[in-house]
Amino acid sequence: MEWERVIRFVIRPRVRAVLAWAAVSVAAAIAFYLAWTGYDHPERPDGNIGHIYIDFAGQWLMGRMLARGEGRSLYDLPRLRQALREAYPPADADAVYNWLIESPDRPGVGGPLYPPIQALFFYPLGLLPPQTAYRIVQVVNFILTFVVGFIAWKLTRGNVWPAVAAGALMAFPGYAGAICLGQNPLISLALLAFGWLLTARGRPWLGGIVWGLLAFKPVWAASFFLVPLLARRWRMAAAMLLTGLALALLTLPFVGWRTWMDWLTVGRAASAHYAMDEPWIFLSRDLQGIPRRYLLDFTADGIAANPDRPLPNFIGIGLWLTVVGLTVLLARWRWRRPAGVDGPAAAFLMLGAWLGCFHFMYYDTLLAALPVCLLFTGPIRWWFRDPITTTLLVLLIALPHAADGVDYLRTGGRPTYHSPPFDTFCLLALWAWCGWQWLGIGTGNPSVAR
Fold first, then answer.
1. Same domain, 248 and 361
2. Which of 12, 174, 197, 251 fits 365 for a cystine, CB–CB 3.0-4.6 Å?
3. What's the burial of 11, exposed, middle or buried (CB within 10 Å: 0-12/13-18/19+)?
4. Distance between CA 393 and CA 191 in Å, rounded?
5. Neighbour tally for 365: CB within 10 Å
6. Which sign, positive or negative, has the C-alpha torsion 40, 43, 45, 51?
């Protein structure tokens, strides 16, 4: 019959590949258009305010200070203010400056949360005007979407086509924030995915070097350092550690060691903000921020009225210690049969590392796409036999977007970002399920026995 011939034609691999690329191309064009115009303000001379938000401006400012030859003043607030006023209109410069962290103990010391290594990475963009640099970062993030899709295709041994992987990445929680704001989780994800691919192909030294580049975001470098340690990949761990140390030493001729001490001061000040600042708490996705959402009272100015309340801090630290502790304990229990490069065991370690990060924002949920990808390396038919994993992944994609949609409808298009952290909840459940699978008492995923 005619319809049977149509079905046979459509299910041909080449036809399906063409259809997949056509669909993802349309989705990519829409996503990029929305990201490019998301912060448009036609009444402004420059037409857009994306380059003013601290998510991008903080990174650009680090590179700008180095480009100005002021690497030793990366956290000198008067110098930072001067650099901003020379690059931004006065009102915009003040807006960026007001987002910077200032140490309460050392007046005049403050700035973005990034370490001096970030200044090296963003030095080329610091040579450009902020809006031009912002647009370049958006384009780079868009290109990295397909780079990560190609790496996912390699990691899954062809089970997931690059077009499908790129499309799934665009739907993953945190993607929109990353590309709209000119943030860097796509860079971090690309480093994680490429480094793990090199390791999976028997090049642990190169894989560790790539992972060591995460030193520009030390909280993630420290968290994911747990993975090669618990997987007994000593060469990868050594290469990662040496690369991070080399990058830190490389900054010294440009910034000096005192600048690193200033950065630690800024980091301590930022920790206090994480405990009391309402936008930071509700935009975060780390485990410690979850109880603070529900157990702290906030003033009209967005500051917690009772930040020292013991209960939310006790629950948050306890939850964090439980996840990290169980991740380490299970890895130690399976010490003689360490996790491989894919399947539930590897995903369990990486999800444990992601959940073990002390503080991070909603767009950093994107880094969890790598452990999710590692679950697709077994036979595709396994997904029909494991409804729990499939359900968790569907919820991971659907719930955060649905919550955001309800938020927009409830507030008439003015998001409050007070939606529950469904992405963290789903990934926490997926971490637990992967650990259950690694114990060998799950639902029979063939990669458990690897």
1. yes
2. 174
3. exposed
4. 23
5. 25
6. negative
Closest CA to 240 of 254, 226, 261: 226
Domains identified in the chain, total number = 3
Q: Is residue 49 part of a domain?
A: no
CA–CA distance, 8 with 167 (Å, rounded to integer): 25
| Residue where a domain terminates, one of 89, 104, 131 | 131
Give the C-alpha distances (Å, rounded to integers) separating 237 from 199, 204, 211, 225, 228. Answer: 11, 9, 9, 7, 5
- Are residues 313 and 200 part of one domain? yes
Q: Is the dihedral of CA 329, 350, 264, 244 positive or negative?
A: positive
For residues 118 and 115, what is the distance between their CA atoms, to the nearest angstrom?
6
Q: Is residue 231 domain-shared with residue 313, that is, in the same domain?
A: yes
In a domain, 126, yes or no: yes
- Is 182 within a domain? yes
**CB under 8 Å to 219, separation ≥6 — which residues?**
357, 358, 359, 360
Please report, in tens digits, the pLDDT of each residue of the chain (450 residues total): 566 565 565 566 777 778 888 999 999 999 999 999 989 999 999 999 999 999 999 999 999 999 999 999 999 999 999 999 999 999 999 999 999 999 988 999 999 999 999 999 999 999 999 999 999 999 999 999 999 999 999 999 888 899 999 999 999 999 999 999 999 999 999 999 999 999 999 999 999 999 999 999 999 999 999 999 999 999 999 999 999 999 999 999 999 999 999 999 999 999 888 888 998 999 999 999 999 999 999 988 889 988 889 999 999 999 999 999 999 999 999 988 888 899 899 999 999 999 999 899 999 999 999 999 999 886 655 555 577 888 888 888 888 878 777 766 666 556 667 889 999 999 999 999 999 989 875 444 444 333
How far apart CA 396 and CA 195 sit, in angstroms, is 25
**Dihedral over alpha carbons 260, 264, 265, 266 (to 10 degrees):** 100
Please indicate, yes or no, if residue 48 is contained in any of the structural domains.
no
Residues 371 and 300 grouped into a single domain:
yes
Which domain, by its residues, includes 80?
54-131
Token readout for 279 is 């936008």
Token pair in block for residue 137:
């970062």
